[in-house]
Specification:
Blueprint: H1 11-19, E1 25-29, H2 35-42, E2 45-49, H3 54-62, E3 75-78, H4 89-101, E4 109-111, H5 113-120, E5 125-129, E6 138-141
Parallel strand pairs: 1-5, 2-5, 3-4
Antiparallel strand pairs: 1-6, 3-6
Helix pairs in contact: 3-4
Length: 146
């Protein structure tokens, strides 16, 4: 155990977060997301965190990872199919967490479902959580610590 490090951040995940560079992206995925195949397609790491929900994982990751403040969209969610303007409950929760925890709070932007999958396939890593809320996926772009 380490002081001031959220225990949901496993040694494997801490290593990944530390190794990521400015502009690299990480996906926090819900239980329905094809995390293993998405990560395998690009050679990215897939970290299993089935005992955690995506909100607690987002809060933990943002406690150590700076959001990129050089881009307009450092946090991306998946649009609801057939209703792209709807904000799912999970995403509303994520926005509150970003507002509370992120060093550079940003408004979550959204991507069409298949565009989200394509973007996720380019990520540095995918964290598969046990999140059961639909559309409970988010991509974060790592920033710099000034």
């Amino acid at each position: 155990m380490l002081r001031n490090i959220d225990p949901v951040l496993s040694p494997e995940l801490l290593k990944i977060l530390r190794a990521m560079g400015h502009g690299d992206e990480i996906v926090i995925a819900d239980a329905n997301f094809p995390a293993e195949s998405t990560a395998r397609a690009s050679g990215a790491a897939c970290v299993r965190a089935d005992g955690s929900d995506a909100s607690e994982m987002l809060r933990a990751i943002l406690s150590v990872l700076p959001l990129d403040n050089f881009v307009p969209d450092p946090a991306l969610s998946m649009q609801v199919v057939g209703n792209p303007d709807e904000v799912p409950a999970a995403v509303a929760d994520y926005q509150t967490i970003i507002n509370d925890v992120a060093d550079h709070p940003a408004q979550i932007q959204s991507l069409e479902r298949f565009a989200f999958y394509d973007r996720a396939a380019q990520a540095y890593a995918v964290v598969q959580t046990g999140e059961r809320r639909l559309y409970g996926n988010i991509i974060l772009k790592k920033g710099v610590i000034g």
